[in-house]
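Hi all, long-time lurker, first post. I run a small reading group and we've been trying to get comfortable going from sequence to structure in the token notation. Rather than ask abstract questions, I figured I'd post a concrete chain and ask someone more experienced to write out its structure so we can walk through it together at our next meeting. Sequence below, copied exactly:
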Amino acid sequence: MQLAHDPWKSNTFVFIEVFGCEGGIQSYIKDILTAYADRSGSQAADIFLLRDRPRDIPPEFFALFRFHCFQSGHPMADRIRLTLALAWHLLLKRPRRLFCGHINLVTMVSQLARLAQVPYTVLTYGKEVWFPLKPSERNALRNAESIWTISRYSRTLACKANQLDAERIDILPCTVDGQGFTPAIANPELQQRYGLTDAQVLMTVARLWRGDPYKGVDVTIRALPEIVKTCPNIKYLVIGRGDDQPRLAQLAQDLGVAERVIFAGFVPNAELVDHYRLANVYVMPSQEGFGIVYLEAMACGISVISGDDDGSADPLQDGRLGWRVPHRDPDAVATACIEALQGKDRRCDGPWLREQTLAKFSKTALAHQLQLLLENASTVKTEDLHQSQSKLRT
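-- Answer (accepted) --
Happy to help. Here is the structure in token form:
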């Protein structure tokens, strides 16, 4: 079937913030925009940004998109300006599709899209849609032509909490930079800095927030006394910062493993790959919407351990690529760590792990999936158009 229009032509995106701060959702959006630009060629899209300033946007993105920024330091006024500008844009330009990048914008997007008769797609990331939403937000999701999310787990929770139709939610997963995250021998200077020379190393990269303990750092610390019995030279490197670190340090002290737990604090993204290479096993028995860190570790050829009831099922490919354990069970974590450290399982084969990870979660794979979703949306719109024309003829 011929498409009614080029699926890349005249699309519009609206986000709260993409370039002014770092985080999982911001990285995900940047990957989507990069893939979009790579596939769309000269068809530049319009991007409306509530909180970003023009100076926040990297020059390479300016060459690919038309940006509309509204950050002035007056949040309420900025939101009003964004709403009015987006309404005028939709009515004047009539873009093929409007992409809403955050649940906090979805009510406004739904109203404007209905006014301008423009179909819209909602991009969701994780916990923001796992719980019952306001009626207006729930209705806006239900009225969207499609919803994209990062994992089967996020889709399941969103549907259960907000009575959504799972068939209308497509998966557009997170990705890993296979050129940036690569296997290599551990940096001796870093090993010496953290006291890891001649040690077997477990590692976690996570926020250490008291109100957000689900990353499982405390569970891994509780597993260490059992792991030590089999792996006496074990060390646990924790990368990240937050107000929960004192509690975690005290826990390690109480369990007699304080000398084995190293809190590295914040590590810049540019240095993260060298820190992954210090690890024998990446362990994070967590509850993730997806878990990009698992992809980063496996792209570096490192075995991974995750929780067994979350979005990590996707990057770990339902346990084919790593160990999935009950996320609050120190004994289960200890058993998985010991197996992974012994290196006898195929899930410890670094080159194979990397190959299997990049086959599904590379940036090339993301671009391919994005194209399929856009072409499918175009096909649906074409079928709707044909049905409308048929009704008019009859």
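A couple of things your group might point at:
The first strand starts at residue 11 and ends at 15.
The chain has two domains: 11-175+362-393, 188-358.
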